[in-house]
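Predict the structure of Pyrroline-5-carboxylate reductase.
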Amino acid sequence: MATAMANDSTLKNITGTILLAGAGKMGGAMLTGWLAQGLDPRRVAVIEPHLSPEISALAAKGVALNPDVTSAGTVETLVVAVKPQLFREAGAKLKPYVSAGTSVVSIMAGTTITSLQEVCGGAVVRAMPNTPAAIGRGITVAVAASNVSDKQRAVADALLRATGSVEWVDDESLMDAVTAVSGSGPAYVFLLAEELARAGIEAGLPEVLATRLARETVAGAGELLHRSELASSTLRQNVTSPGGTTAAALAVLMGDPGLRDLMIRAIAAATKRSKELAK
Ligand SMILES: NC(=O)C1=CN([C@@H]2O[C@H](COP(=O)(O)OP(=O)(O)OC[C@H]3O[C@@H](n4cnc5c(N)ncnc54)[C@H](O)[C@@H]3O)[C@@H](O)[C@H]2O)C=CC1
Ligand SMILES: O=C(O)[C@@H]1CCC=N1
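Done. Here is the predicted structure for Pyrroline-5-carboxylate reductase.
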């Protein structure tokens, strides 16, 4: 696994344009992170057919909204955050913004480096973030094409790191499983909160109380996992008194079939879908 090369001043020292295509949930979260980390808003341009009030308001700070190719300046990095299904159409319109020195950082699920090179050109970094990026607690996995320079990789690293931590891999084929585990992963955790609440209601709790208990339990356990040095299995064992209530519940969850089987099937389905999106 390659080490990160960005440092604290990487975003502040950017001289070209960072062009974001698609300022929806993920693109918008990344943009917020860049500006919070000191990227000059005048270095940022956004291509977005449906501008939200929040993104529109950034124009007052100097962010260029839907600039044409000539007014966008020299695009140092194009960040593509549109839906993969729209990429062929959107990418063709983005290509004129890409010049010899442009790096193209894509966060689209499934879309391969080869497709990105075909449609947009440029030096491609394929990345997979997740929605905790919105609070600076995302995790992103990135893989660079062989023509990405050290400097381009450092800028990509800084742009991705503005929303959380970054892991670089050398093998692009890992990205489908990465997408299944960490890209989609927050949804599984939110589902856990939903189902824990539902089961609490089933067990007789008032809905408001069950919902609050489930939400705070998932959030608190997540924060403990984040802050603790202990393995998740140890944290689990620390809750589990021999012959107690947790052991009774875990006998169900860890039974056969249990959560393990369900999770393997879920991750396999997401991995398969990521591969399909490449086509
Ligand atoms: N939502 C998530 O948890 C994650 C999403 N991703 C990837 O991020 C990408 C964006 O996903 P979301 O932010 O969830 O979707 P979104 O629907 O919130 O954002 C996509 C944005 O692209 C805009 N758009 C549509 N056509 C465009 C065009 N031709 N040019 C520029 N912008 C255009 C849309 O108006 C929208 O604002 C997808 O490729 C997805 O695979 C990656 C990791 C996690
Ligand atoms: O569901 C999706 O396809 C995107 C990629 C990872 C999370 N959301």
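Residues 17-176 form a domain with the Rossmann fold fold (CATH 3.40.50.720).
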